[in-house]
Amino acid sequence: MQILIPWKPVVLVWGLLSGMIFVGFVASSVLQGKDPFAPGATITQPAAAKAGTAQSGQQPKHSNKAARTPSK
Fold first, then answer.
1. Over the Cα atoms of the chain, what is R_g?
2. 42: closest CA among 51, 52, 53, 31?
3. Distance CA 25, CA 15 (A)
4. Distances, alpha carbon 65 to alpha carbons 8, 10, 48, 62, in Å
5. CA 36, CA 42: separation in Å to the nearest integer?
6. Partners of residue 34 on adjacent β-strands
7. pLDDT value at position 3?
8. d(Cα 39, Cα 47) in Å, to the nearest integer?
9. Which residues pair with 42 in a beta bridge?
10. SS (HEC) of the chain
11. What is the pTM for the complete model shown?
12. What is the mean pLDDT of residues 12-31?
């Protein structure tokens, strides 16, 4: 007795999942500022762009003491 496997859907799903993993890896590497195809390499940015992102990323720290309610 033979078990028939529909290979076309298996290959399509396998390819789709592999593609999604690859796109996620590349997107994650780019967001971290690394070149996804060169081991250990980082993407260099101009000094003005680095200074602008460093200043815009700073936000004032707020205390959460007022937001907490005492437990009874």
1. 24
2. 31
3. 15
4. 59, 54, 37, 9
5. 9
6. 42
7. 87
8. 23
9. 34
10. CCCCCCHHHHHHHHHHHHHHHHHHHHHHHHHCCECCCCCCCECCCCHHHHHHHHHHCCCCCCCCCCCCCCCC
11. 0.50
12. 96
Q: What's the mean pLDDT in 31-49?
A: 74
Average pLDDT of the chain is 77
Residues in the chain: 72
* Alpha carbon distance 4, 12 (integer Å): 17
Rounded CA gap, 61 and 10, in Å?
A: 51
Distance CA 68, CA 64 (A): 7
Whether 19 shows a pLDDT value over 60: the answer reads yes
- Tokens of residue 16, six digits: 């789709």
C-alpha distances in angstroms, 1 versus 4, 62, 63? 10, 70, 70
